[in-house]
Design brief:
By secondary structure, the chain is mainly alpha-helical. It has a domain of 125 residues. It has 9 helices and 2 strands. It has a two-stranded antiparallel ribbon with strand order 1-2. Helix 1 runs antiparallel to helix 2, helix 2 packs parallel to helix 4 and helix 5 packs across helix 6. The longest helix is centred in the middle third of the chain and has 33 residues. It is globular.
Amino acid sequence: MILSTTPATLAPGGGTLLVLVTVVLYLLATVPAQPLRRFSAAALVGGWLLHGLLLLIDIAGIGLPEPGARLGFAPVLSMTVWLVIAVYSIESRLVPLPAVRQWLALAGLVAMLVVAAYPGELRPITSQLAPLHFTLGVAAYALFGAAVLHGLMLDAAERRMRGGPQGAPRALPAVGRALGMPLLQLERLTFRFVEVGFAVLTATLLLGIATTVQWRWTDHKAVFSLMAWAVFAALLIGRRLRGWRGRKATRWLYVGALLLLLAYVGSRFVLEVLLGRSPA
């Protein structure tokens, strides 16, 4: 959120104040102290709500002189983190995961600071389907981000099982309870996010090909997106036909997510930060 060009719909200094309050709330949500658990949970919700308001104002271009969206690696990363926190907020109604809350609050805090430093630029809407293409793309980022989060919890469970004393029973239910939900349920949920994310990513690519005036297969964004799509497709096929589970499956998930991250956020980071150029 660029502080010097806050839309006129906000009072002078109001944009800066909103950003500061959001950062403080996310910071409070990272506090691990047990007596403050309810307070930190409320702080995360408050930070998430203000974060969403700032996204609406900034990325949607509310108050700016022409229709468009503020794009760049930081706004897209910020929106992705916001959506992942939204997924967690829904899940936490059923299964409390305080350790995950602290990490997500830290991610929200970092996202706010990064987007304040690199706010992106206003890009005009060139097609009626462009907003849908952008929305689907960010949704795919968020769904795979949620899958990665759950994959990390799966790997943590496996490490706990392997790290137990010799001869001790390695009960999956006990490990699952330590994480906040049954382990098999966590695994199903992880790959449900992968399946839905894969469907959304497929729709995003098809829409991009259909609406782009000159689709270039050699464009770095297209190359990384298609590589990520192929990795996720291989993961789902391997899981269905060969029963891939555990670390083998999560490694494929991490590789696909990394490639997808490089497709837009990574390429824009190189252009905007390392090269100091405005993306075309």
